[in-house]
Amino acid sequence: MHIQSFVISPIGSNCYVLAESPEPGARAVLIDPGDRALTPVFEYIADRQFQVEAIWCTHGHFDHMLGVDVAREQYKVPVYLHRADIPVWDTAPVVTAQWLRQTVPPVAHPDIYWEEGTVVTLGDTRWNIIHTPGHSPGSVCIVGDQVAFTGDTLFAGSIGRTDFPLSSPEDMQASLQRLRTLPEDLRIYPGHGGPSSIGTECRTNPFFI
After folding, report:
1. Secondary structure letter of residue 41 according to DSSP
2. What's the whole-model pTM score?
3. Among 46, 3, 44, 15, residue whose Cα is nearest residue 144
4. Is residue 60 classed exposed, middle or buried when 0-12, 13-18 and 19+ CB atoms within 10 A define those classes?
5. CATH number of the domain at 2-204, please?
C-alpha cells in the first residue's frame, strides 16, 4: 500500500492518492479531490503510471469534492459518496462563492453511493465504510486493516466543525464513540492536517477524553 497526500484546496484540505503499491502501474484511487487545480495530482499519478479505478469522497463539502468532475473526466471512473450528503454536495457553487469568491459550475452527482457496511477493494486490500455523521449527515470513514481515511470526522488533536448547516454535535459524539472502538494502532489520515492513530487520539484528543 502507498499513500501520497496533497494540499490543493485554499481551505487546506487533504487530497490523497491511495495505491495498492508504489510500483509503476499499480491500481489506485483518488480520495477527496477538493479543488479543480489538480495538475500536481495528475502529474504524480502519470509519473508513476498508476491506474486510477475510482474517486472516493469522505463527505460532500466543497473543499473535498470541488475537483470531482475534473478528475472524473481525466480518468473516466466512478465517484463514491454517501447519499445523505447530496444536499451538502449541491451547495458547492454557492459555498465556494461565499468562501473563496470564485464562480464554479455545479458538480455532477456521484455514480455510486456508500452505505454503512459497504466494502470496496483496491487490489488485495479491503476497505470498510463506517457512516460517521456529525460534521455532515453523510460523512464516512474509509477503514482498512492498517489505515483509515477519516475525512472531517476526526483530525489529529481535534474533530471537524459541527456548526455548519446540517451538522450535528450529537451525531458527532456518537460517531466518535464508534471510532474509539477501532484498533489503537490503526493509522488515520484526516481531511485536514497530518496523520495520527486511533490510540494517540484516544489518549490525547480533548474531544475523546
Report:
1. H
2. 0.97
3. 3
4. buried
5. 3.60.15.10
User: Tens-of-pLDDT digits for all 209 residues of the chain?
Assistant: 999 999 999 999 999 999 999 999 999 999 999 999 999 999 999 999 999 999 999 999 999 999 999 999 999 999 999 999 999 999 999 999 999 999 999 999 999 999 999 999 999 999 999 999 999 999 999 999 999 999 999 999 999 999 999 999 999 999 999 999 999 999 999 999 999 999 999 999 999 87
Dihedral-angle region of residue 25 (phi above 0 means left; psi in -120 to 50 means alpha; beta otherwise): left
The C-alpha cell that represents 98 in the structure block = 461565499
Domain ranges of the chain: 2-204
Q: For residues 3-33, b (16+ Cβ closer than 10 Å) or e, as one string?
A: ebbbebbebebbbbbbbbeeeeebbbbbbbb
Is 113 in a helix, a strand, or coil?
A: strand
Beta-strand runs (E) in 43-86: 51-56, 79-82
* Gyration radius of the chain over CA positions: 16
Buried/exposed 160-199: b ≥16 CB within 10 Å, e otherwise: bebeeeebbeebbeebbeebeebeeebbbbbbbeebbbbe
Instruction: Give the residue among 96, 199, 113 at the shortest CA–CA distance from 156.
Output: 199
